[in-house]
Specification:
single chain; alpha+beta; Arc Repressor Mutant, subunit A; two-stranded antiparallel sheet; 7 helices
Length: 163
Amino acid sequence: MTRNASPADKPLSVRQRRFVDHLLQNHSAAEAARRAGYRPVAAKQTGSRLLKRADIQAALAAGRAEAQAPLTRAAVMAELRAVAFSNLADFMRVYPGQKGGVDLTRISRAQAAGLREMTIEDNWTPGGAHRRVVRLRLGPKTYALSRLLAGLPPDPPEGDGAG
């Protein structure tokens, strides 16, 4: 017996995740929909429709719970680790016979934490050809690595006479 997958069974799309993130930043549903990349003319209706979805409500509840969780040294170290070890290769996909491109559909939350900025530009040539340029900027790796290193215990001295 097969059943149709409910929206709660699938992970949120990139736009749905951005919608939730903008809602958690205290934007209205319409503004969150616009900022997430939904059509501006339908943002109010889209925001209202998305708010009724169980998977969106679950993501909002999880986000609120995370925001209210006490800040711990381990949590700070985990964020620093995400920035320090972020890699542009995590966001790139090269498909056979095609140019490479940015693919955010399979990145983890930890990988996304390493992203500092993303800019998307849509350009059209005079002939009408579309070209999308995506620029990613990662967080400051050297700062994150130095902070992580400062929190590590010192290496044991070499040749300590054991053995």
